[in-house]
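Appendix B. One record, verbatim.
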Amino acid sequence: MKFEEALKELEDTVKKLESGETTLEEAMELFEKGVGLTKQCTKLLEGAELKVTELLGGEEVPFDTENIG
């Protein structure tokens, strides 16, 4: 899954959780899915950061992950 797809799915999952229209069991499943998607997005971002760092000859590039989405 590409980053954009994972992020969109994570956003949709959060909206469902925030709606309050799920059972406890459904909410737990959605939460578990969200945690997995968060880990996947983080992994993809770290891979992109490593690639950019390599392309710049080892110079560190701080990504601002707080404002994604």
